[in-house]
Write a structure and sequence with these properties.
about 400 residues; TIM Barrel; eight-stranded parallel sheet; about 40% helix; globular
Amino acid sequence: MKRERLDPVKPIPKGKRPVELFMDSGVFPAWGRGEKIDIKAYCDFIKRNADFLDCYASVDYIPGVFGKPVTREEVEFSAKYSYDNHQKMKGWGFKPIPIFHQGENFKWLEQYLKDGEPYIGIATRKDLSGEVQRDWLDHCFTMLTNDDGVPFVKTHGFGITTISQLVRYPWWSSDSTTWALAAGFGLIYVPALNAKGQLDYTMQPFRIIMSGRQQKAWSSARRQYEGLNPSEREWVDMWLDHLGITPHDARYDPISRRSACLKYFLAFARNHPIAPFAENIRHGGGFFQDYKHKGKAKLDWDRMVIYNSTHMANGQFSRIMTEAGCTHRLISYWECMSKPDLTLHRYVTQGTTNMSYKPRPPAHDWDDDRWTSQRRFKLLERIKAYGQD
């Protein structure tokens, strides 16, 4: 019996695809396994599949060895290697997005601007505190914007979906796995309300713990669903009802939690207006005082794009994203390089693949109302003993 032949998939015009795909090179997961991405193979892949990609990143270089401290010399070598790789790809006729990493000398960001790059990736170090990341981003956007805070280029925040970092800067786009990871830890995101009782996506959202064991830390226990005061719980219930999810589903069903987190980020991207980089937080003096970019500044977008990270092989994630209307997605070449191109084509044109994925079933005792009531009573006892705050 002959195997059924799969016909090629016809490309769909940009902006009308079920999936608008950002292709990451996959350098980081390769580096974590002591391997490297073949830049020539990566470019060949892009060339074959250009009609199915929205944009793609340059092949950057990760300094040092996984699990060991990095020296200043290794960081400088990494920055130069990444720049050289980027120039190689451009020389071969490609238009990748270069990546400037936290810890690299700012001369490399200046060089990308001098080269006339229209779209630059910015990557913070996730092992550093939020305050240190913010201070570094302030430096970056002082260079990336004019005196009025209007950017010279489009920027992509790699792995950035911290709301305070998204609203502080005039990003064009960002990506992150937060929508899936947070839900896996039992969390959902609920938008904040301003003084007028209106949704305000410039404010930090509530991160509510819907599932998991009794939290030992009081600050965490206070964020558990059972620890909320009546008005807070009413707002959480209203938000979940707006999403078509019950509190019971948000507790016991990770699919429902991921759907809730994803829909929050989609709503944020739709409703958060892009504003210039505020003058009062610009960095002056020294290099930044002397540096004056000669390019033309513009801010011709009013909303940012969030590319939510996923895997083609994860049918569950694909279904959640398709049902939520999430078209902008990021996947890694690391995942794609061992699969037929047709798999990518069908993913972009259909929103999913025919790969099977079976999530692990929840533990049996999680579906026990007695356990839920017991946790609520313990929280009430702590509230009586220590107060609401």
